[in-house]
Amino acid sequence: MKKSKSINKLTFTALMISLNVVFIIINSFFPVFSLLILIGIPFASSLVSIKTNIKYSLLYIFCSILICFFIDYQTVLFYLISSLISGFVFGTLIKKKIHSFFIIIISSLINIAIQFLSIEFVYLIYKINFIDIFCQLINIKKEEFLNISLSFFFLISVIQTLFSYIILEEEASKFNISINDNLSLFYPTLIGNIFISILSIIFLKTPILSYFFTSISLVFSIYLLYYIFIYKSKFIRIISLVIFALSFLFILVFFHGFKEIGFHFIFNIFSIITLIISVIFIIYVLNYKKEKISQDLFHKNY
Fold first, then answer.
1. pLDDT exceeds cutoff 90 at 76
2. CA atoms of 197 and 274, how far apart (whole Å)
3. The dihedral of CA 30, 89, 228, 150: what is its sign?
4. What is the spatial distance between Cα 282 and Cα 38, in angstroms, rounded to a whole number?
5. Exposure winner among 34, 67, 126, 161, fewest CB in 10 A?
6. How confident is the model over 249-271, as pLDDT tens digits?
7. For the chain, what is the HEC assignment?
């Protein structure tokens, strides 16, 4: 029985390695299909991590890199390695029953760390600077792009990881996968957003960090608003729309001033407005509705 399980795991691992090779071959001939790498490989990696153990996961990562390197080394260095490792982390966190929101955040942070290491590695070995190439491609000054580079890659990683999560969630039942996606993270998300918003303001004079923390705060803010809007209260929704409309007018009036501070400050305002709405939501639910903010509160309002 044990030998049979090992064979099944090895077969599954080999199948996922073959799938990665196919993705790389397709991408080398048709670059337009690079989305297969950005979404398909993290998905395959997460499945290997969930369905096997660390031994097979390491074998999967090593063999995928080794085989694909001889097909297209640039794609391997810049895309494949980060996708393999972030997918492995993604699957491992699912096995640990970490909440899906934090899985997406953690996987995205690890993804950008590996991408930047890959960029440095490629430059050291091949003297190819991907940052310069990218700046020329989108016609932006290098100094300007460096300021937004962390936030840019983070948001791209979030989108990539989110797509992988959506696919995995849809297919979870077929693979007997259980994902922790309960609705009991309102307070932790709120506290986390306050902390990150403070960091983005503290580092306002260090654009690369301020932009980075602002982008993380933006993701937290969107998730907070998701909580607030699935709670079906016309009062909260009307108040939220009014506050956002007023903040939009405020931004238009003082737009030139924000240009001097940095465009990222506009997203700081979005985070601050979200925090204000969150406080109004808490007061409304606790004092007017006399309810606790828990998982049951959100479930019963679907």
1. no
2. 11
3. negative
4. 38
5. 126
6. 877 777 666 666 556 667 778 88
7. CHHHHHHHHHHHHHHHHHHHHHHHHHHHHCHHHHHHHHHHHHHHHHHHHHHCCHHHHHHHHHHHHHHHHCCCHHHHHHHHHHHHHHHHHHHHHHHCCCCHHHHHHHHHHHHHHHHHHHHHHHHHHHCCCHHHHHHHHHCCCHHHHHHHHHHHHHHHHHHHHHHHHHHHHHHHHHHCCCCCCCCCCHHHHHHHHHHHHHHHHHCCCCHHHHHHHHHHHHHHHHHHHHHHHHCCCHHHHHHHHHHHHHHHHHHHHCHHHHHHHCCHHHHHHHHHHHHHHHHHHHHHHHHHCCCCCCHHHHHCCC
pLDDT at 300 over 60: no
**Ordered DSSP codes for 68-102:** HHTT-HHHIIIIIHHHHHHHHHHHHHHHTT--HHH
- Rounded to whole angstroms, the Cα distance separating 48 from 37 reads 16
